[in-house]
Amino acid sequence: MDYSCNFRCVAGCEGDYDIEQVIYRCPKCGELLEVKHDLQALKRRGAAAWIKLFDERSGSSRWPYGSGVWGKKEWVIPHLEDENIVSLHEGGTNLFWAERYGQTLGLNELWIKLCGNSHTGSFKDLGMTVLVSVVKQMIKRGKPIGAIVCASTGDTSAAVAAYAAAAGIRAAVLLPRGKVTTAQLVQPLANGALVCELDTDFDGCMAIVQKLAEEPGVYLANSMNSLRLEGQKTVAIEIVQQFNWEVPDWVIIPGGNLGNVSALGSGFDLLFEMGIINRRPRLCVAQAEAANPLYLAYKRGFDKFEAITATQTEASAIRIGNPVSIRRAIRTLQRYEGVVEQASESELAEASAAADRTGTFTCPHTGVALAALVKLVGRGEIEKNDRVVVISTASGLKFTDFKVRYHEGRIPGVVSAHGNQPVRLNNDYDAVKRAVLQAL
Fold first, then answer.
1. Which of 91, 115, 195, 287 has the most CB within a 10 Å radius?
2. Distance (Å, rounded) from C-alpha 57 to C-alpha 410?
3. What is the domain partition of the chain in residue ranges?
4. How many CB atoms lie within 10 A of CB 374?
5. In the structure, what pLDDT confidence band is assigned to residue 1 with cuts at 50, 70 and 90?
6. How far apart are CA 283 and CA 261, in angstroms?
């Protein structure tokens, strides 16, 4: 069937723009763009037929449908030629039933969507496969694009570098010096990207990269480019599919630059429009207290948004005070009866550690979402029998220093209630026996 999509202004200005056009904002009003699909064409295939098709493709070895993103190709970028798809088998991540941790909170159905179980260790792979694939097609059709660039708090740069390397396209990434983990820094270096460390924060990097993207031959890969969100929206579709095409009651999303909340909203919207689900979940965006501009706007009823200067937080990937997707995020939250919650450094660290004691290994950003969950349960907004999904955005292995400092009691203002350190013993059986038996 003849499926198609175009860019369109999120504020409703008239006019469509080709997906392969180098454009990030509406030329009429300056608002961001979004990808709009021909829903009438998509609806000519019924809900049951889409479910059957997507289920058949899940885990397939047939290129490119084994990818969690490209298994939904018609709902992502339908006209993209298969030979131009750059996929590292992203998506298809497990939905972990956090039974023991849920029980400690009085919940029967707590699930954690482990988006960090991906090629570069974060959900950013889902958007980057789409963006880099479109760029590859643009280059093949003669567009003079020499490099893909991004500003990053760590995870975006890793995904850009990996997918650009797989496509044979140059990549340049701008990072705030000293504000990303070693694991995050080494990823783009290893993949051959030009890594520029700037003496600023993410917002400073973002201001520069937006100017840089105006130069000829430079293509912007940050989430203000809505191609990213087309890949990330498949998380919502995948969650519903993993629940046998049933929708959860709540989804809790860590929020920094805020592209992910509008992406998941877009995914749930499409499922609703296609008649696959008959209701929408409630959404919660969780922010670190040190980087909480959306939370502050929410407390004012969204009547006014003011950028802030984000301060030090263990949740470094969401240390953003002036998120580019703020308007999209607010519109999504208003449509979804959404709430915004915040977490202090102590709350996020302790929530992460408590979840780890039940078998997870969460990044600090997931800790922010878990801390928000604790608050929502505590005040009765989330109830015992609600089906709740927490979006885990990255692998905890990228943040081992955070874990080490927590268990050594070296995070300022954090008690480390769940701290655990190795017991140093001589090479002596009796000493080992005593230590083990005393711990029983």
1. 287
2. 47
3. 95-121+229-407
4. 17
5. low
6. 8
CB distance 149 to 212 below 8 Å: yes
Q: Under a CB-based contact definition with an 8 Å cutoff, are residues 5 and 226 in contact?
A: no
Packed helices 234-242 and 259-273: angle between N→C axes, nearest 10 degrees: 60
Question: Candidates 2.40.128.280, 3.40.50.880, 3.10.20.310, 3.40.50.1100; correct CATH number of 95-121+229-407?
Answer: 3.40.50.1100
Report the DSSP pairing between strands 282-288 and 218-220: unpaired
pLDDT at 158 over 90: yes
Looking at the DSSP assignment, which residues form a beta bridge with residue 231? none
The structure tokens 């008959």 sit at: 278
∠ CA 235-237-238, rounded to 5°? 65
| Per-residue pLDDT tens over the stretch 3-54 | 999 999 999 999 999 999 999 999 999 999 999 999 999 999 999 999 999 9
Residue 127: CB partners within 8 Å, gap ≥ 6?
159, 223, 227, 228, 229, 230, 231, 232, 259, 263
| Nearest-angstrom CA–CA distance, 7 and 11 | 12
| Digit-coded pLDDT (tens) for 162-214 | 999 999 999 999 999 999 999 999 999 999 999 999 999 999 999 999 999 99
**Three-state secondary-structure class, residue 286:** strand
**What residue has token string 């709430």?**
339
Taking the complete model, does pTM exceed 0.85, yes or no? yes
Question: d(Cα 34, Cα 391) in Å, to the nearest integer?
Answer: 22
Q: What are 295's two structure tokens?
A: 């939370």
pLDDT at 59: 86
